[in-house]
Amino acid sequence: MVALVDVRRLIPRTDAVLADPRLTSAQQRLGKPLVLAAVRQAQDQARAGDIEPSAVADTAAAAIPAGAASLTPVINATGVLLHTNLGRAPLSPAARAAVQAAAGCTDLEFDLASGTRGRRGRGMLAALSAAVPDAEAVHVVNNNAAALVLAATALATGREIVVSRGELIEIGDGFRLPALLESTGARIREVGTTNRTTAGDYADAVGPQTGFLLKVHPSNYRIEGFTASASVADLAALGVPVVGDIGSGLLEPHPLLPDEPDAATWLRAGAALVTASGDKLLGGPQAGLLLGRSDLIGQLARHPLARALRVDKLTVAALEATLAGPLSPVAEALAADPAELRDRSERMADRLTAAGVDARSVVAEGAVGGGGAPGVGLPSAAVSLPAALAPVLRAGDAVRRGATPAVVGRIDDGRLLLDLHAVAPADDGVLCAAVLAAAG
User: Fold this and answer.
1) How far apart are CA 121 and CA 142, in angstroms?
2) Is the per-residue pLDDT at 3 higher than 80?
3) pTM of the model
4) Chain Cα centroid distance, residue 308
5) Where are the domains of the chain?
6) Cβ atoms 215, 368 nearer than 8 A
7) Which of 311, 314, 364 is nearest to 342 (CA)?
8) Are strands 406-408 and 210-216 parallel, antiparallel or unpaired?
9) 50 Cβ neighbours under 8 A, 6+ residues apart
């Protein structure tokens, strides 16, 4: 009689698998819980008969993620420069290096010369002041919505905020501006109509209960046709503080975006405060910038809510490096030459075609995206591929092992387009390798 061996008795013990040098090294790098989870998953596969018991250590080692966080690096080939779902602006090498330097102990609130407490984020604030000299003072919170909340709380709690009906916007994930402002205890005084609001509409609403006039740039839609709107200068002439939300983070005029408002222009036009985002057209980390009159900025910075909305040391470092350092990837992408984009797409398509992949170079149109300039197209070029490659590029075994990054493109007319407008030229080789791996 042949004795049957229970395969479960052949599965190596957990402590024996964890002693494998590859897994020991991974524990030091990632911590034990992630490694232990990979080992137990491999043991379960062996119990189910999916792998041999002798392959448990190999399977566990292959399943260990590249990093301790679950976020996966992605190549943004959608053609949208500031893709909200992909984290908006990629940081510059200078900003990434600054974040790395700030990861340990720093002089965030310490004066090394005197050995006493120093002003928090003084270098960041100085860099922001230098970038927007029209602002008497500056302050930074954790995002643009927080900047508006702080302004409304400090300047209009129990009072009215006068705003055009055409500027009562909804931002991502269903958050609506009126609800955000009303949560501070302010009252919304709507004026004008959706398509036409004049300075006279604001003037008629101004009274003893007015906290400030709010001018909001609709950065994710356009109203066209029979329209009218009041300028910042028109509103400033009414003698009431004007708070302007430019949204996009554009600090000065940009030749490619002539209709996009910028902080410097609105401040010169008479805005008392301008709020903006750090992670949009500025190209830095998520942050809310407050720029304007020194008395109002001081009032906001001293408000108790300012402590709850302040930025951490990593944001301080990244924002200062973005402001004082070289061009951000977003700025470089905006300035990309369409002819160079076509050359890059043709070279990539030729390389992929030579490897047997159905690839073509095509003309495309990109977009700024969540940062502003709605309706403004950016001449671009893309590599057209079979749509079946889209899910393989987005997620695969190679992604988890860190061999190639995830790639996100867009589907157009039944084909997958990998638009190069938001792809750094240095990543072309990596992108091509990812396509070859997915096709292979």
Assistant:
1) 13
2) no
3) 0.91
4) 21
5) 9-63, 74-87+331-439, 93-327
6) no
7) 364
8) unpaired
9) none
CATH topology of domain 74-87+331-439: Aspartate Aminotransferase, domain 1 (3.90.1150)
Six-digit token pair at 380?
Answer: 């671009």
* Contact assessment for residue 368 and residue 376, using Cβ atoms and an 8 Å cutoff: yes
Strands 406-408 and 74-76: parallel
Beta bridge partners of 74: 406
Whole-number Cα distances in Å, 126 to 123, 130, 136: 5, 6, 12
- Alpha-helical runs (H) found in 3-132: 14-18, 21-30, 32-47, 56-63, 93-102, 122-131
Strand 377-386 relative to strand 406-408, pairing:
unpaired
Question: Could you give the CA distance from residue 192 to residue 390 in angstroms, rounded to a whole number?
Answer: 46
In angstroms, the CA 360 to CA 347 distance is 10
Q: Which residue has the tokens 């448990």?
A: 56
pLDDT at 72: 85
Which range has the worst mean pLDDT, 170-179, 272-281, 404-413? Answer: 170-179
What angle is formed at CA 116 by the lines to CA 114 and CA 118, rounded to 5 degrees? Answer: 100
Helices (H) and strands (E) counted in the chain, each on its own, are: 19, 16
How many CA within 13 A on the CB side of residue 435?
30
What is the CATH class of 93-327?
Answer: alpha beta
User: Cβ–Cβ contacts within 10 Å for residue 5, how many?
Assistant: 8
Domain 74-87+331-439 and domain 93-327, same fold? Reply is no
C-alpha span between 149 and 214 (Å, rounded) = 12
Phi-psi region of 326 (alpha: psi -120 to 50; beta: other; left: phi over 0): beta
Radius of gyration of the chain (CA): 27
Mean pLDDT of the chain: 92
82 forms bridges with which residues in the sheet? Answer: 369
Q: Residue 365 is which amino acid?
A: E
Asked if 264 contacts 134 with a C-beta cutoff of 8 angstroms, the reply is yes
Return all residues near 89 (Cβ < 8 A) that are at least 6 apart.
82, 279, 280, 282, 283, 284, 285, 328, 329, 330, 371
Backbone angles phi, psi at 127, to 5 degrees: -65, -40
Please tell me the predicted confidence (pLDDT) of residue 222. Answer: 78
Angstrom distances, CA of residue 371 to CA of 59, 218, 250, 293, 365: 43, 11, 9, 25, 17
